[in-house]
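Human: Note token order:
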Amino acid sequence: INITVARTPAAAPSDRCSLCRADGLSSMGNFRDTTRCVLGLSGLAAIMVMVDAVAQIVMYAQVPDSAGKILFVIFTGILALIVPCCGWQGARDRSDSLLSWFACCSYFSGAVDCAIQILGVFVIIIGIAFSKASEACAADATTSTCDEEHRQKMLDECKSLSIKINASIVNTTLTHERIQNVTGLTHDLLSEQKCLDTMKSLGYGLTVLGVVVVFARCVDMCFHCASGYYGSKLRHMLLEDPHRDMSSDSESD
């Protein structure tokens, strides 16, 4: 009995070469896109640092005797520019060490942003608690959640706040009109209704502040994590093929 076994013809050399060429073009295109992402994220980070530094300098310039604070802002701004410079130079010079620093610092910044978000959530919780406590302890009502003891504690807190404001007047150079305004505010805080209104406003303010902090830090965390991801990705590409060069990309085009 003759058994005929069909054999699959081997791929022609030209077919194998075309597959290798297509795979190489795809890899080089991915490398080029990752490099552009790192350059773009580094440039955007540098712009954000400079804008923040300029805004702080303009704010402190309006305050007398703030030369030391301005110099501190400039110094910290220069330090903050080190990280985006590492990403930019590492992507241009194909330096895996600079990209490693860029990625690690970006991930660390993302972790700090996450921690600040958690603090922001606690601020929101405290703000909501202040608002609810002030509403429950209305001056003309005594509820199960706010008896006379709790109301007296709130008034004591208002008195403590009044003492702190008065103490700050001694250590601050104020005009006579501003001193009268602040003193009048402290006397108003001693009244029960004013105390409750102040606590309610403080609760709303803390809630809004917490929401803004959480949202802003969420955006920063996404930005820093993206920078760390693409910086680490580009570094791994360079370690796998340290002879990559932009000239190969131009030849492939």
Summary: Residues 84 and 137 are 51 Å apart (CA to CA). Residues 169-190, 246-253 have pLDDT under 50 and may be disordered. The first helix runs from residue 13 to 61. The radius of gyration is 31 Å.
